[in-house]
């Protein structure tokens, strides 16, 4: 990607006011790996209300420079959510999911700019030493994207809802990947 990345900012998801937007994103066929294809609006609202009430899981909207919601990101503590009992967490580990909405007018480099912004945001917290992801093993597009920003796969794991590729990215791996 060349040029300056878009100036994304982040704000917490408001489960009530953002539910309709999120519903349109998570139920789109492009979001199949989000596993909410058949969710009703109420299901999305409830899911994000649960996240908002959870001290170990946070949902944020990534906003474009004009304040328009551009993507969804979730940050979680892998020792308590998603990966609890599936790997040995280290101090400073943080789990992450992100979703870019489907569009009729794709912008080249957008998804790479999003994941780069997400990792920069996570690593702004000095306590974060390593980002952990567990995408579906079939999601080859996200595996390539993860590799481009420094993630290194460790192994496949079985989660209740999917077979996942457990991967890690340290601050150093990220900086090396995005400055190379």
Task: Please tell me about this protein's structure.
The chain is an alpha+beta fold and 180 residues long. It is built from 5 helices and 7 strands. Helix content is 29%, strand content 25%. A 7-stranded mixed sheet has the order 1-2-3-4-5-7-6. Helix 1 (19-26) packs across helix 2 (41-52). The longest helix is centred in the middle third of the chain and has 14 residues, at 110-123.
- The N- to C-terminal Cα distance equals 11 Å
Order of helices and strands: EHHEEEHEHEEH
What coarse outline follows from CA principal-axis ratios? globular
- Summarize the biggest pleated sheet: 7 strands, mixed
- Order the strands across the largest sheet as they lie in space: 1-2-3-4-5-7-6
Strand content: 25-35%
**How many whole angstroms does the radius of gyration measure?**
16 Å
> Given the structure, what is the number of helices?
5
According to DSSP, the number of beta strands is: 7
The average pLDDT score comes to: 91
- Please identify the structural class as seen in this structure: alpha+beta
Parts with pLDDT < 50 across at least 5 consecutive residues: none
